[in-house]
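Exercise 7 asks you to align residues with C-alpha cells for two separate proteins.
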Amino acid sequence: MSDRWQEMTVFVRVAESGSLSRAARELRLSQPSVSRIIGTLEARLGTTLLLRTTRSLSLTDAGSLYLGRARYLLAEMEEAEQAARGMDTLHGVIRLAMPVFYGTRVVIPALAPFLARHPDLRIEMVMSDARQNLVTDGVDVAIRLGVGLLDDTTFGARRLGDVGRLVVAAPSYLSTRGIPADPAELTRHDCIIQHGLFGRESWRFTRHQTVTCVDVTAKLWINSAPGVLAAAVAGMGIALATQVMAGEELRTGQLTQLLEPYRLDPAEVYAVFPAGPKPSTKVRAIVDHLAASLDNST
C-alpha cells in the first residue's frame, strides 16, 4: 500500500472508531505507528484533521471534509482492484456482525461454501445480541433480526427473509402455572423478555384477521437469546422465541409451544451496512450469497 493510501486508510478508521488504540488493533499496527501516520498526514496537508485530548478525539472542519472524500476514494480503489481481479477472486477482510443463535445455527453453516469459493477472503465475526454501532465498531455488514426493523435511514439494508416466532414455556412451568388458552391469559403469567430484539411488553397476536395486543408482565429482562432460552428451559416463565432459537428444545420436549392457533409477526432478517459509499464488492458478494442461501421458511 502506498504511503498516501495507508494514511487515508488509517485516518478513516481512527475517525470512524473515535480511538487511536482501537484503530491500531483493527489495522494490526502499533498505537505509536497510527499516531505517527496521522501526524505525517496532517503535516503534509498543512492542517489539523483531528483534535485529540487524553479522553476524546474529534474531527475538525477540515477533518470532516477529508473524511468524506477519503471514504469515497477508498471505496473506489477497492472497487477498481476487485474489478481487475474478477468476482471469483475476492480478497481482504469482511467484518460481519450477527445475533448469537441465528448466526450460529443459520449464518455460519451458510458461509462454508462461500469461503470455500474465496480462499483469499477472511471473515471476522462479531457475535452478539447487542446492536453494534456499525461505524465505530468497524462493521462492514450486520445481520439483524427484528419486527419493524428499518426505522433508521442512516443505514442501507437488504431484506434476506423472515423467521417465524412463537411462544414457548417449559413443562415444569406449565405444570405449576397452567397453560394459557388465549393471549389474554398471558397477563396472569411470568414472562421473559429479551432486550433489544423483541424487548416489548406488548405482544401482538393475529387470528382470523383479528389482532390482539397483550401487555405482559416481565418476570425477567435478559440481553441475550441464549439467556432467554436458558431461563425458559429452567421453568422461569413464558418467552417469545424464533423457530431457529427454540427448535431443538421443542423437538426434545424441553419446551412446549403455546397458543398455536395464534400468529405472531415474523422476525424480519436484514443485512445492514453503513450508509454512504455503496457497499464494496466483497460485501455485496456475501450479502448476495446469504440472500440465496438462507432458508426463508425458518
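Second protein for Exercise 7:
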Amino acid sequence: MSVKPKRHDKLEARLGYRFADPDLLDRALTHSSAVSPGKRVDRSYQRLEFLGDRVLGLVVADLLYRQLPKANEGELSRSLNTLVRKETCAAVARDLGLGAEMNLGESEARTGGANKDAILGDVAEALLGAIYCDGGLGKAYEVIERLFGPQLGLASNVRPDAKTTLQEWAQGKGHEPPLYTEIERTGPDHAPEFTISVRVGAYDTITATGASKKLAEHKAAEAFLIRERVWRDTQ
C-alpha cells in the first residue's frame, strides 16, 4: 500500500503553483538524512536539485538576455552567476519559508539544517526541478521569474569576479598570483564548510568560509579587496 504524500498547501499558495503530483513537491523537500540509504536516490531531493539547477540557469539566462539588451557577455555572465549562486537560492528559500517545510533527519534537524545556506539553496533548486517535472518549462519559467525577478536589477550592477580582480590587482603591483590555501574543512559530507586563506606578496593573509572551496576562495578574495580598499564595503 502506497503512503499518501504530505501536502504543503501553504507553500503552494506562496509559490502560486499547485502541484498535480504532490509527491514531487514532498520529494523536493526531503533531505537525504530523512530517508534510509537505500532510498536516497529515489526519495530525496538530490536528482531534482540537479535538474532544477539547470532549469534555473536556462530561465535566468533568458531573462537577463531579454532585460539587459546592452549588456555584453561578461556582464551577463556575472549577473547570471550572482542570481544562481547558493546564497541567492537560499535567500529565496527563506522568503518561501522552505526551512519549516523540509523533511530532515533527526541529527540534521538538531544541528540547524533547516537554516543552512547550502541545504536551503539545494532545496530551492530541487523545488524548481519539481515544478519543471510537474508542469513543464512554461510553469517553471513563471515561478522563477516571480521569485528571482526582484534580484535582476541588483544583479545587473554586480561587481566583477573577486578572484579575477584580485589577480589583476596583484599583477599590477608586481606580485605573484594570489595563493589560496585550504585551512580547514568541517561539517558532514553532504553539507561541508571550507575555510580558505589567501595571501598576496607580503600582505597579511585573510580567511573566509563557504559551502565549497570555490565559494570560500571568492569570499576570501573579496575580503582582501575590501581590506586593501580596492573595493568599498557595501554591507
